[in-house]
């Protein structure tokens, strides 16, 4: 137990040094594996274990013990129970046991004016009953459904968090290094759950001023959503997945996406909360914009030239990602290790780098497990400063 506590303190120090602009002892590893991966890897039934969260401890325990990482790899923040109670159209359990996010929208063109005037009321009164069919009823029944859904939400999420916290202590993982909040860039929020990808693209052509107004109206909601439930810490972060920017022309990015996104990250930073960005797809066109974000913004890149991004951003911001998980499925063990070495040689000099993959690993059969373990072992033993 004492050895595990010492290991945990060593891992915590890696991330503290990383975030304090010091050179860590070695490159920290921040591995994230989905709840679906854990269940499959443990040989359990995917649908059953997501409904009975007491089964997750066995699955998470096996995963934590078999993969080298400095943070707890277990991630679970969506469970089917409350989506089922709500009659969700936006997250639907497939026959294979995966929660899928179909392209739906709950926000109509005629809702823009009301949303700009009162975004919270618009979401509660108009958007939610369209996305969650069980809320499209009389006020009394709606309140009962909400109460049931919140009870299921807190039961499952709290149980999952208790399991993860227990395993963090058991395996000596660092409790810092990942994120403790979640929100979206205002334009992504409008494009994702509200208008949908197809509709928002049409809106910026037909009613551009209303899109701008809606993003500005959504900004305070995103700031509030992104704040953690406890006082902000320089070692915490709010996770912000960035969806739509690569699909926009630069002039549209400048008008619709960037102003409220930058204000969101700036305001979080001013409160003491860093942003952990998942820079989805290819943001090469927008690297100069990313540079302007507050120092030590954490950026997980899916695509892009790591050398170019290191040169442009690596002295100011903390970089991660880049390693293609597809390689873990298709390449030899040595090729996988060579790729890790290549990225470490490019990204590690000078610090401000932690190791993870270009996206979270969702299924156990999407990678060669031995290749994954070999890469993690290599990084843990060969990325010392």
UniProtKB/TrEMBL annotation:
Domain Uroporphyrinogen decarboxylase (URO-D): start-end pairs: 181-381
Organism domain of life: Bacteria
Gene3D superfamilies, sorted: 3.20.20.210
Any one biological process term the GO annotation gives: porphyrin-containing compound biosynthetic process
InterPro entries according to UniProt: UROD/MetE-like_sf, Uroporphyrinogen_deCOase
GO MF assignments: uroporphyrinogen decarboxylase activity
Organism name: Geosporobacter subterraneus DSM 17957
Cited CDD domains: CmuA_CmuC_like
The protein's name in its UniProt record: Uroporphyrinogen decarboxylase (URO-D)
